[in-house]
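Exam prep: given the inputs below (a chain plus magnesium ion), describe the expected output before reading on.
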Amino acid sequence: GGLLVYAESNVESGKQIVEKNQSEPEKKKRIVVLGTGWGGTSFLKDLDISSYDVQVVSPRNYFAFTPLLPSVTCGTVEARSIVEPVRNIIKKRSGEIHFWEAECLKIDPENHKVFCRSGINDNLAGHNDFSLQYDYLVIAVGAQVNTFNTPGVMEHCHFLKEVEDAQRIRRTVIDCFEKAVIPGLSEEERRTNLHFVIVGGGPTGVEFAAELHDYVHEDLARIYPLVKDFVKITLIQSGDHILNTFDERISSFAEQKFQRDGIEVLTGCRVNSVSDHFINMKVKSVGQHVEVPYGMVVWSTGVGTRPFVKDFMEQVGQGKRRILATDEWLRVKGCSNMYALGDCASVDQRKVMEDISAIFKAADKDDSGTLSIEEFRDVLDDIIISYPQVDLYLKNKKLLAATDLLRDSEGNEREEVDIEGFKLALSHVDSQMKSLPATAQVAAQQGTYLARCFNRWDQCKTNPEGPRRFKSSGRHEFLPFGYRHLGQFAPLGGDQAAAELPGDWVSMVHSTQWLWYSVYASKQVSWRTRYLVVGDWVRRYIFGRDSSR
Ligand code: FAD
Ligand code: MG
Ligand code: MG
Ligand code: MG
Ligand code: MG
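Solution:
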């Protein structure tokens, strides 16, 4: 059945399908992992493969340390320094993990198969199609750039998502300078060639703008003295502020720093289209359209779902959603034995209010119809695990004791509560629900979490570790996934970085850059890449960046 579906929808005539690994009978459960980014790699690193047969499919046979991609665009760090071959990562384990360099084209949940194509990176050799059978599928394919269907973006803009993108940007920056110094150009033409535009004021766009500014002023200005005063960097943001997922203090600090540095920040502007020489944008405040000539545009406005994941969502009844949904155990909703993590999926949190009666019943152990303070305290621990928004609520309200929820309007502590009082106490907690950000931090923690579940499967079947089950969909052998936010960085150029750390700690001094260096050095996947990255940083300090094309 699966093959037929595939043949109808995907295979060009004459391409044959090869079934792999179907010959010998298998005892071990088969796990197929799609993707070797942050999510997939952290899963593979922590998975105990003594009881599983694991196969990995990814079109790139390396892991890329994405937080350093903006540094690759300007040669602060070399591309080779931030990638680690997948085969290095998987060979360390006791036993064998198979890796196939291929792209997954289709998932067939009914027959537990994925259909893949190899050879897509190779224009000459042609490609090969094969399928894999799984008992468990782990989808960690990340997301793709989102152009919001803006005309011309695909054709004329650069992206900053993959290692190749960063290398291409690096070459184009130099090309722009070389074009700008050609004799006989008007000043206007030189200015246009050296107008670098970044669309999107998120962390990636901001960091790239800062990197480029440093590159231009620290290195290129010396080599191209003729045109150094014609360089302009513009950041276009449709919202009112840049870095709007960060603390306000960081966001305004970044805006002020950019202003001092001469990076123009245009907020409240929406790009309508991009042609080979102009960006057409709308200035929201005045409703006017303007044409902006450019030398290079980097498009960095968030991410969208990959087409084959969209097809899969259609198949499992999630067609109306924007992004693949999982439950708190990272299981794909509407499927069995399938998991999704990282940027390609989002955890669908349940509201406390949906389950409030069930929670109350479970808490009221003596069936008295009311909860005593002890009963309330006791159930709250389980509620906090199952519904992370409760913890956030308590923290944001700066409540020292959870029982403060039970105070009446005069501020007196109640002795006991009935169901109405209980509903009232928790009525505002769901306002704190927010989806997890699309970050490496989330993907890596999810990978580690899922590996731990697989490693402890048998143990937890007999000895559940999960909280009390309040809801029918819940699973109580495992704790649900809980995210620990360890803070975020925004390098702003000039050896300055802003850091936002847990506990409302915000730091924007010069030494923050060193904190950033040490955190990123310590987060490298291997000693090899750690050595290379630190070496690149030292080289840059001593010799500056390389400016050959
Ligand atoms: P990815 O890491 O994107 O991995 C997806 C994997 O799936 C890749 O190996 C890909 O080759 C593979 N794949 C794609 N299609 C298929 C297919 N059809 N079949 C099989 N495999 C497929 N996050 C932070 O927390 N901090 C930062 O400082 C930070 N900086 C960033 C800077 C940049 C420039 C970028 C682009 C991102 C940054 N991020 C940062 C975000 C972070 O990189 C992502 O959130 C993270 O990579 C998500 O992990 P993932 O495993 O879901 O996806
Ligand atoms: Mg991944
Ligand atoms: Mg990655
Ligand atoms: Mg996600
Ligand atoms: Mg009671």
